[in-house]
Amino acid sequence: QLQASGGGLVQAGGSLRLSCAPSGRTFSTYAMGWFRQAPGKSREFVASISWSAGSTYYEDSVKGRFTISGDNTKNTVYLQMNSLKPEDTAIYYCAAGVGSKFEYEYDYWGQGTRVTVSS
Prior knowledge:
By secondary structure, the protein is mainly beta. 0% of the residues lie in helices and 52% in strands.
């Protein structure tokens, strides 16, 4: 029900923009979040945005480099990632839920898109 796209291979210092679009339903009453899972690690919160309040939250390591935004008309959320580092390498997942940093508060998940940052 959520389709994540935009991942790929990029050199350190480069940029990527991830997109997350709904399929089959809308999530206009939900907040949207991005999580990531690096190889051998647990999935972690990256950023979230509230459609109603427009508020955004970021994990500390991505503040100032990543920007989450949304297009209400398309119910699509984006994650602009700049100044990418090798440690940003992970599978990135979008999710719909209450907008917190906790996985269990998200009800719907996309399939993930892989981001690889080479040094």
